[in-house]
Amino acid sequence: MQTLANFSWFSLFDTLISLVVAFVLGSLIGYERQYRQRTAGLRTNTLVAVGAAIFVDMAYSLDGSGGAARVVAYVVSGVGFLGAGTIMKDGLNVRGLNTAATLWGSAAVGACAGAHLIVEAVLAALFVLAANTLLRPVVKAINRQPINDEDSEVIYQLCVIVDEAQQKYAMAKLELLLEEAQCPLSNVDVTPFGDDDVEITATLPSGAVESATLDAMIEKLIALPPVKQVFWSNPSTTE
Fold first, then answer.
1. Which residues are in the MgtC/SapB/SrpB/YhiD N-terminal domain (predicted)?
2. Consecutive H or E run containing 228
């Protein structure tokens, strides 16, 4: 009979409004993510928003605003772990940060809806959508600008492909050139490349070298008989 004692049509309607708002706003955020084929799309963002709304609404019904505030703190940390699952690291490239942040925003929208802050939930959803849509042209415009070696924090990778039997010789020459250019090494990786070759990848920390210096190194390295190919890149953090 405890169920009947706790039942209230007004409370049920209030909860329904919160969940509907969380569902609609979470779906809008998720649609934008799904349209761009991101890891966390329509269903994931909707479920995060609705789930946050359910927990906060339940805490609000049981213990008022104080209980809701405590649950919101747990929602924030819990969604942080969920978002970490969307972040993937491939060498120096990191993908999924924006998707994880969007899940965090969806949880915030749901939490607002669950706390019966409907207007705040709508505003939060609009700002999340604006960040993912209106700022995209700005990001693309910035990324098209030429990189200034003095101002940017770029991590360079210098890759040398050489016959496996000449690996030590090539590494010694590479280290010598880096020492002459006063370029400290952050890391050196050697991986198989085909049947008989290896790829030596030297990672240089931010601000340690300029692109012109790398070009000069490539000219010297490619002139060595054992070296078959040399190139450099600057991996960037992407979504």
1. 19-139
2. strand 227-233
d(CA 21, CA 53): 9
Q: How many domains does the chain have?
A: 2
Does 2 fall in a domain? no
Residue 148 lies in a domain: no
Distance of alpha carbon 66 from alpha carbon 10, whole angstroms? 21
Helices 97-114, 42-84: inter-axial angle, 10-degree rounding: 110
Domain assignment present for 239: no
Q: How far apart are CA 46 and CA 25, in angstroms?
A: 8
For the entire predicted model, the pTM comes to 0.60
What is the per-residue DSSP string for 20-72?
A: HHHHHHHHHHHHHHHHTT-SS-HHHHHHHHHHHHHHHHHHHHHHHHHHHHHHH
